[in-house]
Amino acid sequence: MARRMGGFDFLTMKKQFKNNLFAIFFLFLLLFPFFMLFKDFFQPKDLINIKDPQTLRILGFTCYQSFLSTVISFFITLLPSYFSAKNKGVLSKLLENSIFIPFFFPPVSAVIAFSLLFSSTGLLAKSGIKINIMYSFTAIIIAHVFYNSPIFVKYLSEGLRRIPQSLKESAYVEGAGKVKTFFYIELPLILPSISRAFFLVFTYSFTSFAIVLNLGGIKYSTLEVAIATTLKGTLNFSKALSYALIQFIVLTLINIFMSKFEPQSFEYNEPEYSANKKTGKLSLVISIFYLVFEYSLVIIGIASCFFNFITLKFDLSGFINLFSKELNNRFPVIQSIFNSISVSAITGILATIAAYLLLKKYNKIINIAIMSTFGISSAFLGMALLYLNILYNIPFFILIILGFFLISVPLAYSFLYQPILSFDKKIIEAAKVDGANKLVIFSKIELPLLFSSFLSSFLQIFAIIYGEFTISYTMQIRDYFPLSSIVNYSLSSSRFYREATALSGLNVIIIFITFYLSSLIRKKE
Hints:
It contains 27 helices and four strands. The protein is mostly helical and 525 residues long. α4 packs across α5, α14 packs antiparallel against α15 (237-258) and α19 packs across α26 (484-493). Mean pLDDT is 83; it is low at 263-270 and 273-277.
């Protein structure tokens, strides 16, 4: 009989603690760097910085540009989302696959492609369209709309597909047209999808770093930029910590508000696709314009390896120079590519294993613990890891893997959530009856059946980490452990534009191939 005291079953508590042990270890890894910062630098009086006029200005601008970017992204994707939901064809697939951009397209590559298109000597200027929006508020908004709006397309189109056809047919019978049906029937039902997409787009715009830093500059600092520049300029941990706390509080409050929109439950119904003409010419035209806007920058990013967009001629000089001894003596390009591949591969493996172990012990506590880490600022994490290096002289190689691991576990957790939790437990129970231990069950049953899910998760984490910029920039590791994204930024900042665009194109190709492979694996899965 189990020992009890005060109504508590200690055997049950022990089992729950054992199940949550790995989640506790993960949270320890996450919180330890922040604990050291708080212990040494945080004082209640630091919260007075919130009243500082400069802090209020940065906070106000961060909220304003994030809200404006999100609203514009929502409205310009309404028709493309509707078109993607109602049609099946090449255009719809391209619209769906644009989700590649916010999650996998490197921010530094996006900045370089944006410069090649919109600068005073860019493609638009050469075609007779005199436009130069670089280093302006307009550039930040357009770049954020480009980078994050595909999230709306993904969430809205999926939400529209889930609405039962019978509801729409009932509205048509009552005399409602397509426009009225959309605004009075479909739009209210997809509000939960809109809220989730709104939070993601707002968060990514709120925590944007490379885009704001490179296309706007210090003049248009957001909280994320202010954290990194404060550290790089004065090593003022106290002030940077106050910025990070404000950012965390704002995003947490918005997340709580958005979570009030509960998803609607419908029985699954196979989407009924229609011919392109039935969704209207306007939605078709707007969708084409949207695709041109999104994919033109991706194509420019890839083509910059072998095409000079300034002279409009094929030019491999930048690509060749990347691997020259002279350039690598100053900018460790080859070493950075090797480092990025190594770190991304190690992180992908560790994050996938960690996500599997966490999901095998799945409960509400673990779910809340893991998903809550999405609100952690990358610049804040980079700052904490840099302080660990200062305190204990921990090698940057270990710290950068730790940082990437901490931000990628929630992503791997999301990628593997459905495959692992929906795995047929009867197979495992039958194996246990036959005397199989956990190692045999994993190697002979779970690994073969879940291999495609594991590989897909690994490839997606690899692609995301390879292009990550904020943590490594905040940690200032270029001279100690150079990564491709940081060297790419250094080349551009030092006006090695041909080499910077070539490296950017090479990075995009590596990431795109990885993403494409993961997409093929997911389809087979």
